[in-house]
Amino acid sequence: MKPPIGPVTLRWLVLGVIVVLWEAAPRLGWVPPVILATPSATLIAGVEEADIFARALMFTLTEITLALAISYGLGGLAGVVIGASPLLRRALLPLLSSVYAIPFVVIYPVMTAWLGIGPASKVWFAGFYGFFPVVLSVAAGVQLVDRNLVLMARAAGASRSQMATEVLLPAALPAIVSGLRIGGALTTIGVVVAEMLAATDGIGFLITQNRTMFRTPEVYFGILLVLCLAGALDTLIGLLERRAARWRPLREGEIRHV
After folding, report:
1. How many other β-carbons are positioned within 10 Å of the β-carbon of residue 129?
2. What is the helix (H) or strand (E) element at residue 147, kind and residue range?
3. CA 5 to chain centre
4. Residue 4 contacts by C-beta under 8 Å, 6 or more apart in sequence?
5. Which one in 107, 136, 137, 240 has a CA-CA gap of 20 to 30 Å to 101?
6. Average pLDDT by consecutive 10-residue portion of the chain (258 residues)?
7. CB distance 79 to 142 below 8 Å
8. Looking at residue 246, what is its pLDDT?
9. The dihedral sign for the CA sequence 151, 247, 178, 73
10. CATH architecture of the domain with range 37-247
């Protein structure tokens, strides 16, 4: 039986209820406006200071892009190398898992001491913040690749680069996408948190600046921009996942829908 409400309709319905309650709570006195600004006041504040937020958004987006190059590039490469080597898996995966469990924000003061409070410290901090889930997910995915696929590729004379790009990566795609989602979210969070701690520009800096001046609508507009950035990145990863799914080798009995 077909459900009465589809998932997309339900999603928008839940979002609408949240927005209505959000608007009503400060207006009805349930929450002080200085703590929770209404959506209407938040959007008005964003429109009035659109130029300021736009400049800060571009600054933060540039930092996120550079940090993603670190987390995805280094993390993906390290994950493939570690996942393909039993020796490296046994030696490095426990170490990486232990480091990943440490609250990474504690090293940001060290980064600022080395690189200053400019963009470099934010990029490297956020890049390594997202590095660990990417390398762990990719290594786990490569480790679980069907050995028969590897044997067939070797028998066909595949080189190491062909083995990585045409066998290991496509077969490990689900785990890789999971790591990209988590790593992308942590990278975005890392940039914004770093900007909130020590910066002179960016969305995180604006959130902290407006918070100290009790400009609640501007704070919430900055938070909305961060949510939009994270949502856009997740949507992009989902699009890449659907496009890359055609590369994934079929499992026994599986039919690929075109």
Report:
1. 27
2. helix 147-155
3. 30
4. none
5. 240
6. 71 89 90 90 92 93 93 89 85 86 81 85 90 89 75 74 71 79 89 87 91 92 91 84 59 46
7. yes
8. 57
9. positive
10. Orthogonal Bundle (1.10)
Assign residue 82 a region (left: φ > 0; alpha: ψ between -120 and 50; beta: otherwise).
alpha
Domain residue limits, the chain: 37-247
| Of residues 25, 88, 84, the one with CA closest to residue 220 | 25
> First CA to last CA across the chain, in angstroms?
25
CA–chain centroid gap for 237, Å, is: 9
Count of residues for the chain? 258
Task: Give the per-residue pLDDT at 198.
Answer: 82
Residue 248 confidence (pLDDT): 52
Q: What angle, 0 to 180 degrees and rounded to 10, lies between the N-to-C axes of helices 108-115 and 173-197?
A: 70
The pLDDT, as a whole number, for residue 127 is 92
Which of 60, 199, 190 lies closest to 128, judged by CA?
Answer: 190
Q: Which residues contact 177 (CB under 8 A, 6 or more apart)?
A: 237, 240, 241
Query: Tokens representing 243?
Result: 């496009």
Tokens of 199: 């910066």
DSSP-derived secondary structure letter, 116: -
Q: Residue 74 CA to chain centroid, in angstroms?
A: 15
Q: Give the model's pLDDT for residue 258.
A: 42
> In Å, how far are 151, 167, 192, 247 from 170, measured between CA atoms?
15, 6, 32, 6
Provide the pLDDT for residue 255: 46
Q: Which of 81, 215, 211 is nearest to 135 (CA)?
A: 81
